[in-house]
Amino acid sequence: MGRSPITVRSTEGPGHALENGVAWGEGMATLARKMEPVSTPERKAALLGLLDDPTKAVRAAVLDAYKGLGDTGVQWLREAVRDEGPMADHARRVLHELREDDPKAAFIEFIHSYRYELETGSIMLNRTWYPDLDPTFCCLFLDEMASRCEQLFCEPSTDFEKCRILNRVIFHEYGFSGDQDDFYHPDNSFLHRVIERRRGLPITLAIIYLLVAYRCGLALEPVGFPGRFMVGCYTEGEPFYIDVFESGVFRTAEELEAMLEIHRLESDPAILAPITVGEVLVRCCRNLVNQFTRARDPESARLYADFVHEFENAYKRKA
Hints:
Blueprint: H1 24-34, H2 41-50, H3 56-69, H4 71-83, H5 88-101, H6 103-113, H7 118-127, H8 135-152, H9 159-173, E1 177-178, H10 191-197, E2 199-200, H11 202-215, E3 220-223, E4 230-233, E5 240-243, E6 249-251, H12 253-262, H13 277-294, H14 298-318
Parallel strand pairs: 1-2
Antiparallel strand pairs: 3-4, 4-5, 5-6
Helix pairs in contact: 3-4, 4-5, 5-6, 6-7, 6-14, 7-13, 8-9, 8-11, 13-14
């Protein structure tokens, strides 16, 4: 699509002309009218035509216009990216700038990227509720725990023996445990709050365990066991599972099947298999929906329900 006829040539001040010969003040007023947050096809085309304008003033006005449009503006930009036309790279740039200001939009964009990575996704999910979170806090803390684990490894060691070391460091030296007293508190679902409080849900404790393990070169996997998220190891013959909510108790497949029977749940081999990072993050969002609903905070519950729907729609598009 061609550029809008209102294109600023210079930002030096009055006296510099626009392409259509309009004086500076009148031109910026015209541009401001084009930037009004009205979601019409004409507005969409006008904004799209201005995406590649190199002028700082126009870029700032375009960014403000997309901010004013909210979700509609984000959707227009995503369409431009998916179309892979001449404006695709410029639309990506504006999306990136919007994400920097809005952690919720950033997480949605992450969902739509299909490039799921556990540490990045967990921190971005944290920032939807704690926007001022410094991501280096979590990363440096996980580095510290992994370094301590590596100090204690004695090579050659099996993965089972290394998991014993992880248990010692994470659950005994650093004191992480399942939150038995206030299980449904939303802070149990946010990685940095679990690190600060040393208590959390099975899934957030599992995320911490996995991120420490990855730093130590251990190929562990998330396991979405019903009601009790687990960490699995499939590298040494018979798989074994780490019950992080119980301070790292090792469990066999037979023990987990027995737990299913106790709760009258149907046994299925898929239950004991690894799940994807996307599935981990969706489960975190579902937990937050439940937690905020219990806390009688329906608006916050809707926010995380919207994230669940974004994941579901992304999977449908990918299928």
